Amino acid sequence: MTEKTVTEAINYRRSVRIYSDEPLDDAIVKQCLVNASLAPTSSNLQLWEFHHITDKTLLQKIAKACMNQKAATTANQLIVVVTRKDTWRKKAQANIAHFNQVFTQPEAQKEMHQKKMVLNYYQKLIPTLYANFLGIFGALKYWTFQLIGLFRPVYRQTRWSDLRVVAHKSAALAAQNFMISMAAVGYDTCPMEGSDTLRIKKILKLPRGAEINMVIGCGIRKPEGVYGKRFRVPFEEVYFKV
To answer: Domains in the chain, start-ordered, CATH in brackets?
Structure first.
């Protein structure tokens, strides 16, 4: 199979809402999810999970939770992209372990002055941002950073709600990596926001701290599955060179 170039894949990708019965290769879909995991992510925390749904019973249950949209009911497979902000401690420790190993390598010895900065980032700054207790720390952090911001540039997305947005942005970047990767091999997708996320969490037995970012229908398009010619507002309306 000849893969499309990035530009070809982007132009090929459409939100396909009706799929044929042609099966997908699980291994290829999984590799596209590996590509998803290489997307940029805030602080490299990777606060995401990808649930690859191939079981027919689960497909039917999740399709129902997606309001029985054709993009779900006709999909050969489904991907549920989940944010896991509640795993920030585990992911921070993984980064710390990684950098401790990196800085033991001979070629990194000359950069040892960076080790303290990197470790402080994950051992002090990340806990400062992500630690929370009944919303109290969030309010305190918010007003503290706003005060500091009166005198110098400062990071202001410090509330628990702000960090939810950060996690969902990273997950969406990963989802886009996945969909472009699927398009590159001739597979089709449709990201869906219209779903009962609480039901999906229960179906997948996800913990309380998990949140559904989106459900992605996957398959091979039928001609009628693409609803018309692509429309975008004139690029000049959204492009500003300064």
So the answer is: 6-86+162-225 (3.40.109.10)
